[in-house]
Amino acid sequence: MSEGLSAKAIPAGRDRWQSQGLMWVVGALVVWMGMWALRFAYNGFSDAPVASVTGVMVSVAFAIAVWKLRAATIAGALFGGLISLILTFWTILPLGWRQGTGLAPLVALFLLTFVATRSGRRRGVIESEKERRKGRNAAQVLANLSVAALSVSTLGYSLVLRGQACCGAGYYKGWVVPAMGVMCLAALVEATADTVSSEIGQAFGGQPVMVLGWKRVAPGTDGAITLLGTAAGILSGAVVAAVGMWGLRLSLTDAGVALVAGVCGLFFDSVLGATVERRGWLGNDLVNFSSTVFAAGVALGILALVR
How far apart (Å, rounded) are the C-alpha atoms in residues 147 and 89? Predict the structure, then answer.
C-alpha cells in the first residue's frame, strides 16, 4: 500500500521479470484449477444444468464486463474470468449447488475497487496512460486475486488437511470447508482494502506518513499511508467480509477472522512497501501477491486457534 505516486524504486528489468514469473507460475496454477472447474461444470450438467450453465455464463460475463469497463486488459480480464469460474465451482463443490458461492465477495471487491479507482481519476490523480486506457494487466490481476481462488481449490484443500490422508464428514464440514472459505475471504478482503486505501488515500488523504516511524513523507513514497485511506480500506474490507459471510456460508466468527487477517495483510503490504519495495528488491506485483498470501496464512493460523 503506497498512497501516492512516484517512480518505481525497482529497476524496470527486474520488475518486468518478477511480474512475468508471477504470471507464468501462478497463472499456470489458475489455468489448471480453471480447467478443473470447467470439468466440474460439465460433470454436474446432468444433475444441475441451469446452475452449470449459469456459472459459466456469469464468469464469461464478468470477464467481458471487466474488459469493457477498462478495468483490465484482455489478458487480465481472461484471468479474472477464470478466477470467477474457480470461485464459483470450487466453492459449489463443498457447499452444494443451492447453498452458496464464492462469486459474491469477488463481485463486491470489483465494485468497490472500481468505484474507488474512478473516484481517484475524477479527483485528478495521475496514473500511467497505459493503465488509464486499458486497465490492470494479467500480472496485476493475479497478484491480487489468485490466492483467493487457489485457497478454495485442491491446493487449499491439501493445505488445510493438516497432513491427513483422509478425513471424516465431521472434520470436513467442521474444519476443511470453513478454513478454505476463510482463507479465500481473507485474501479478497486484503486485496480490496489495499486497492481502496491506495486510491482514496491518493485522491483525498492529504500528506501521508510512513507506516514505520510515522514520519511525514512526500506523496508516492513506498510504505506511506493516510488515515482516511486506511479507514476507507478497512471499511471496504468489512463490506467484502460481510458479503463473503453470506456467499460462502461462514459464521460471524469466521468472517471476523477473515476481516482481521485481511487488515493484517493490508499493513503487511505497507511494511513490505517501506522495506523491500522501497529498496528496489521487490516490485508491486510481488508485494501485492505476498500480502494476500500473508492474509490467507494469518486467517488459517487464527482459525486453528479459535476452533
Answer: 16
Query: String of b and e for 82-108 (b: at least 16 CB within 10 Å)?
Result: bbbbbbbbbbbbbbebeebbbbbbbbb
- pTM for this one? 0.91
DSSP 277: I
Q: Looking at the predicted structure, is the pLDDT value of residue 266 above 60?
A: yes
Give the per-residue pLDDT at 207.
86
Which phi-psi region, left, alpha or beta, contains residue 249 (left: φ > 0; alpha: ψ -120 to 50)? left
Q: 41 or 291, which is more confident?
A: 291
- In the DSSP assignment, the letter for residue 293 is H
Most confident of 8-17, 38-47, 125-134: 8-17
pLDDT, averaged across the chain: 86
The cell numbers describing 49, all together, are 444444468
pLDDT digits (tens, 9 = 90+) for 166-184: 667 677 778 888 899 999 9
Helix, strand, coil percentages (3-state) for the chain, rounded to 5, are: 75, 0, 25
> What cell numbers appear for 186 in the block?
481473507
Residue with cell 490523480: 125
CA distance 91 to 4: 36
Q: What is the rounded CA–CA span in Å between residue 77 and residue 60? A: 9
Contacting residues for 170 by C-beta, under 8 A, at least 6 apart: none
Alpha-carbon distances, residue 28 vs 7, 25, 32, 142 (angstroms): 30, 5, 6, 11
